[in-house]
Amino acid sequence: MKVKFTKMHGAGNDYIYVDTLRYPIADPRRAAIEWSRPHTGIGSDGLVLIGASSVADFSMRIFNADGSEAMMCGNASRCIGKYLYERGLTDKTEIRLETLSGVKTLHLHVSPQRQVDAVTVDMGVPTLIRRVELGAGYPFGEGIALSMGNPHLVIFVDDAESVDLPGVGPLLEHHPLFPHRVNVEFAQITGDAEIRMRVWERGSGITQACGTGACATAVAAAFTHRSPRRSAVRMDGGTLLIHWSEADGTVRMTGPAVSVFDGEISLPG
Ligand SMILES: N[C@H](CCC[C@H](N)C(=O)O)C(=O)O
């Protein structure tokens, strides 16, 4: 059976998107693994399933390239907003999206030509913000851990470019402090409200950007008084604007969403 998909990216963090209202995926874990492969598959950071919801307008599920399912994906949520509006699945410019870490609200920025090139997402309230000691045997002494619905470890460094991501990423992704593994961000303060960040994602490795990771980075920087509560997080694939609201504690993330191509592929097996 052939499945139609759309390849999209948010600041270079690229996923395969399938509308499961039309193309149900029985084994998304296996599909994510096989389709994410660069040479024998489509090539992506993972697989995103768009579906129905009984509590919101639509739902999303996100599977990393290793097949692990995540609670939330910031870059994908913006792309879903673009997908739903531009393909006529909704005419709303404020969309409620059910995720495994609760219902998120997408605010679409629509051009006069009815194109959605940017979206602001209410990412919810960060929780479990804490300083952690990484202990002996690790290349860094401490970091700020927190949850954006999914787990993050933010490590502040003097020079983000010099971090050996392939060398230290896997080690920290599997740190015993995080029984479900963790997404690891390396952050360098580059200005009053500017942060350079590189990421090793749980289940996908190095990605060009991480939406929840950018939120975690901005929150950790504000929490440690390294930056104000509004900041720009510059990653390899692009920059996201983050605001950790003083009023209600919600994190709002604004950034791009790009549709690359449509295709079709056979289900695995
Ligand atoms: N690797 C993440 C899921 C994708 C999150 C990221 N791509 C984003 O944009 O938030 C995890 O396992 O929690």
From TrEMBL:
Subcellular localization, as worded in the UniProt entry: Cytoplasm
Q: Where along the sequence does the record put site: Could be important to modulate the pK values of the two catalytic cysteine residues?
A: 152, 201
Q: Which PROSITE patterns does this entry report, sorted A to Z?
A: DAP_EPIMERASE
Entry superkingdom: Bacteria
For this protein, the Enzyme Commission number is: 5.1.1.7
Task: Please tell me whether the keyword Amino-acid biosynthesis is annotated for this protein.
Answer: yes
- Which SUPFAM superfamilies does the protein's record reference? Diaminopimelate epimerase-like
Q: Where does substrate bind?
A: 13, 64, 74-75, 150, 183, 201-202, 211-212
Main localization category: cytoplasm
Q: Which reaction does it catalyse?
A: (2S,6S)-2,6-diaminopimelate = meso-2,6-diaminopimelate
What is the active site of this protein?
Answer: 73 (proton donor), 73, 210 (proton acceptor)
Query: What does the UniProt keyword field contain?
Result: Amino-acid biosynthesis, Cytoplasm, Isomerase, Lysine biosynthesis
Matching entries from InterPro entries are given as:
DAP_epimerase_AS (IPR018510), DAP_epimerase_DapF (IPR001653)
Q: Which GO terms describe its molecular function?
A: diaminopimelate epimerase activity
Pathway(s) per entry: Amino-acid biosynthesis; L-lysine biosynthesis via DAP pathway; DL-2,6-diaminopimelate from LL-2,6-diaminopimelate: step 1/1
Q: State the protein's purpose.
A: Catalyzes the stereoinversion of LL-2,6-diaminopimelate (L,L-DAP) to meso-diaminopimelate (meso-DAP), a precursor of L-lysine and an essential component of the bacterial peptidoglycan.
Q: Which NCBIfam families match?
A: DapF
Family note? Belongs to the diaminopimelate epimerase family.
Outline the subunit composition. Answer: Homodimer.
Please report the name of this protein according to its UniProt entry: Diaminopimelate epimerase
Q: What species is this protein from? A: Phocaeicola faecium
